[in-house]
Amino acid sequence: MRRAQVAVIGGGILGLAHAFELARRGSSVVLFERGSSATGASIRNFGMIWPIGQPAGQMHSIAMRSREIWLEVLSQSRLPSLDTGSLHLAYRDDEAEVLREFAEIGPAAGYPCEWMNHEEVLQRSNAVNPENLRGGLWSTTELTVDPRRIVAGMAEYLRSEGAEIHFGTAVRRIDLPVVEAGAREWSFDRAIVCSGDDFATLFPDIFERSGLTRCKLQMMRTAPQPGGWQLGPALAAGLHAVFIPHGDTWILEHEEVNAAPAGQRLLIVGRFAELREHF
């Protein structure tokens, strides 16, 4: 029976991140992925490192620390990223009002951002539709990566650093120290399950009691653009202004109040849970 310190189950970005950190701390790590490659949300997502999407305080601090780790990993593995930043576009007056307010309060809360007028936005990105554009919120912290390239490249990098990676190897049973994977038995001190598929099959009772609902994310792809054209800053439109964090407060624009008089379209709620009252 082969032995290592930690088994990581799931070869997506969550499993790779755990394997990377454990290997960096000196643990012997074996990662198992049931598919021949990662095929789930890790390679179907936006490919954005998006700190601006987190509320001020602990969650934003975690997001910024995550950004730092991403940059460390990308540098060590020599994998590419684009320091794109992000533009949140306003095509309606109420959207512009929310984004201008956030540009005033955001920097003091740790968000490096600023309001840009119509002309400044178009100078920043040639992919923006100028019709009815009021302006936009520019943030410097966002990064963009190619999910498929990053997931595959991180697995190869971990191999080069001594971690074992086994694709096409389903974990059948975990009863520590024994882990049955493929046709073999292994001995581990710890096992970390980083996959919804494996969580549901290995621990069905716990999964059922958890109340989690499986969902799927599928992004659309455009045809290759001529001349090596790049989008530039990550673009977000009005729907991304629905939730704008302000300390412990969230500013909410909700479609049900679209007919309200001017100045009454913003709902202020103290906690995220209170949003349920407005749906």
Characteristic terms for this protein:
single chain; D-Amino Acid Oxidase, Chain A, domain 2; 8 helices; 15 strands; FAD/NAD(P)-binding domain; disordered C terminus; 279 residues; alpha/beta
What does the model show?
By secondary structure, this protein is α/β, with parallel strands linked by helices. It folds into two domains: 2-47 and 146-210, 3-Layer(bba) Sandwich (FAD/NAD(P)-binding domain); 86-145 and 219-278, D-Amino Acid Oxidase, Chain A, domain 2 (2-Layer Sandwich). 30% of the residues lie in helices and 25% in strands. The chain has eight helices and 15 strands. The chain has helices at residues 13-24, 41-44, 58-77, 93-105, 118-124, 147-160, 196-202, 204-210; strands at 2-9, 29-33, 48-49, 86-90, 113-117, 135-139, 143-144, 164-167, 171-175, 178-181, 184-193, 234-236, 243-246, 249-253, 266-269. A six-stranded mixed sheet has the order 8-2-1-11-10-9. The protein has a four-stranded mixed sheet with strand order 5-6-4-12. A three-stranded antiparallel sheet has the order 13-14-15, covered by helices on one side. The radius of gyration is 22 Å and the shape is elongated. The model is unreliable at 243-279 (pLDDT under 50).
